[in-house]
Design brief:
The protein is an alpha+beta fold. 34% of the residues lie in helices and 23% in strands. 22% of the residues are buried.
Length: 157
């Protein structure tokens, strides 16, 4: 199976949003019922993806198999905490590969291309956040040399 990884263009916006909505629906069902499923195609979600596609500090990659977008990865440069002496920081913000295309290395290809983008931007640290219960994705990131740094704990009131 031939996979092409490329930068998304504004013409890919709707498909990227459709994939993000699938990600949100999965996360909502399995891990976080507080997600706003209307955000993706709302004003803020649309602006977020347009900016990530069009601005220099954003990166949206798409994976294509036989002219079909089967996955995406979105990330970008982040402002680092001013109380830490950090290099330029990027965050891998969200990513999804359609279920029937998972476990075929497409996520790894998207990730590797994002790391190349980060290196070109002189990024010194890459962050990713994942639901604590999502063991599969946490294992993927740990396999790709991410280390646990902080834990966010929440208390429902």
């Amino acid at each position: 199976m031939k996979v092409v990884i490329k930068n998304a263009t504004i013409d890919d916006l709707q498909k990227v949003q459709e994939l993000n909505l699938k990600l949100f629906q999965k996360e909502y069902k399995e891990y976080d019922p507080l997600l706003n499923l209307k955000w993706t195609f709302g004003k803020e979600g649309t602006k977020y993806y347009k900016n990530r596609i069009l601005k220099d500090d954003g990166c949206v990659l798409i994976a294509i198999v036989k002219d079909e977008i089967v996955g995406y990865l979105c990330g970008g440069i982040k402002k680092a905490e001013v109380y830490r002496n950090l290099p330029i920081v990027a965050e891998l913000e969200n990513t999804l590969v359609l279920e029937k295309f998972r476990s075929r290395g497409i996520g790894k290809q998207l990730f590797d291309e994002f790391i190349k983008w980060c290196k070109n931007k002189k990024v010194g640290k890459v962050r990713v956040e994942a639901s604590a219960q999502n063991e599969r994705v946490i294992k993927f990131y740990r396999t790709n040399n991410f280390k646990d740094y902080t834990s966010v704990l929440e208390l429902d009131m």
